[in-house]
TrEMBL record, chain B:
PANTHER family on file: FI03373P-RELATED, MULTI-COPPER OXIDASE
Species whose genome carries this gene: Microvirga vignae
Source superkingdom: Bacteria
Lineage per the UniProt record: Bacteria, Pseudomonadati, Pseudomonadota, Alphaproteobacteria, Hyphomicrobiales
Region (Disordered): 30-52
EC number: 1.7.2.1
Designated name of the protein: Copper-containing nitrite reductase
Cofactor(s) the record lists: Cu(+); Cu(2+)
Amino acid sequence: MNDIAGPETVVASPRPSAAWPGYAFVLWIALPLFLLGLAATWLVVSDPLRAFNNGAPPVERLTFERRILDNSGIHLFVRAGGSEPLTIAQVQVDDAYWTFTQDPPGDLGRLATAWIHIPFPWTLGEAHEVRVVTKLGTTFDHEIPVAVRTPEAQSGQLVPQAVLGAFVGIVPVAIGLMFYPTLRGVGSQGMSFLLALTIGLLAFLFVDALEDALELAGEAAAAFQGHVMVVLAALVSFLLLWAIGRRRGAPTGLALATYISLGIGLHNLGEGLAIGAAFTAGAAGLGIFLVLGFTLHNITEGIGIAAPLVKEPPPPSAFVWLALLAGAPAILGMWLGSLAYSPQWAALALAVGAGAILQVIVEVGAYLRRLDERWKTASVPVSVIGGLVVGLSLMYATAVLVKV
Amino acid sequence: MRNWLRETVNRRHLLWGSLATASGSLLGGMAATGQSPHAGHGSAPPYEANAAGRHSAHGNMITVGDVGRARNGFDPTALLTDWDTGVTSSLPDGRTLRTFEIIGEDKEIEIAPGVFFPAWTYNGRVPGPNLRVTEGDRVHIVFRNHASHRHSIHFHGIHSARMDGLPGAGEVGAGETFIYEFDAFPFGCHLYHCHSLPLKRHIHKGMYGAFVIDPDPARHPEQAEVARSRLLGTPENREWQEFVMVMNAFDTNFDGENEVYAVNTVAHHYAKHPITVIRGKPVRVYLVNVVEFDPINSLHLHGNFFDYYDHGTTLTPTLRTIDTVMQCQAQRGILEFTYREHETGLYMFHAHQSEFTELGWMGMFNVVEAAA
């Protein structure tokens, strides 16, 4: 293929653009669009797809995006998909038909959403299963693994959420950054080790973020094409940040640390969304043990941010906003996640975070390569391999600690 | 990280209890307001959710809306009593010949408000017509299959192998006709259903119905009085209030489990439209179970007891003074009871498989004084 394509690409030389008159320019935009309209009209009017109609019922899809449990019962936010409008006919809770109201009422068109209100006396701490029966008798199930009152979105809840977000996001990064004076004492070997460790931890976060994003995308309505959206968002975020970061050459020092913070911050935003949503969904499982685990896990992130600063000390204030940039989005994410959450938005946030992390992996790698003379002999320094392994292992080991 | 959360929210996880306590104390300590996520449960319990419906017997545990007669072309309330006794003529030997016409057709029916089921039907209704003959009658059933598949009518009764309604013995291809002929024996409460293959699908798609053979008093001189009360049209029989109840169910998503349970097809119909019973008149229920996928079904009567005639083939009860009876698929029987000594009011009946009850198999008798 390449052999054939090669010569052609060589032959094709850039042609000077002809100066077209204005009407021709408009014409060549309007004509294809006009043809598209014509084709669409013909398709609708003549309905050639009739020949394919084999009597099969239309495809129905229903996605559950939010759930609220309160005094008045169970409330579910659903989104329809599929080939034709969907009609919710009945609702079962735990294999029993239950009265319900739909808001807004009526058929649900493609991607249309509605709240389903069920006056069901749910039992604290026990599991329930909601089943929606459509007009065609198709059923869609939604599991409530642990029924817990949904925390109400009020200022009283925002404070404890912020405290939790700070524990998960800001505190560990700040503690990690406090290793900075110790890091300053390392030699060039140590520097390579530190940067490689940063790459290792970022690689862990990248995989983690992408995995979560893809999984959340799977929960979203099919029309969002979740998996494609995740890959696309990660790619766009990577390219954008890469282009911005390279405006004044490859970033080093404080600039590089800032990008690392940004990447980690975006990742924490996605995590915060998920945690906030889990809170709303009644995930009371966030014990002290788990929160401490998160904190421990994220300390490595602070060390990673500090690594590029070893050779180029920034003003002390920089440490404060670096910690905030990396950690505070966790708080923001928790608030947003508990107030308005849909799997596709959390997936999007995590995908953007994954792209940002990929960008800093590339930039830290480039920095590391410039820093270490030994790359030129084509050998891989032991300190780099050691740093990568330690970085990955540290993240993995602390994850094991909190994995329940 | 998200995965950790999900793992911990699973109810089946033993750690949940301890972690929940931990989180409560953690957040309680952290929050300025000192509120844990569980705070407020004491003041307003979630059980309040069902309070709105407490005035009625079923509360909010019921389907929403109602199935009109117009959509289905049949009304479960009318199905209780609309006997089809066929076209009668006399044979040379003096016996009665009863001829029935049954048409097999595909029809979408509404089995719960707003839920439609692509049924296979006899005469466009589920259950099919309530056939009623007298012991010893000659019976001709002209079955015209206008449906898309091969079908048959397999009667539970005494007949020859040729009339059995199996593939090769009275199974009817689409567009074809077959006449089933047999003498009506034994008397009792029976049923008929399609016996084409696959059997499960042909039954649960809706091809079944009640088939009652009344005892001929002349053949049971020692119990002629009882037999006359069972024989449709006699003065003794008119003293009774008779209802046909075919317990059925529908697997709307074809996963081998039923989404809707009912008596005479429409979920909760008799809960929303109680069956009127005159207090002074005894009640006789011809109960048939055709539920597919579940091994057994049952009927439980509230506030009362009944005598039960299994298969209806005896004139003395096979079970006396019971309030719950169990039937496997195709089992059937006759229930006899009275509200003569009761207050008027609504008396519930339902399957005592609570799951079936909650999925639609529940109804009410509205016991009233006789109209003046």
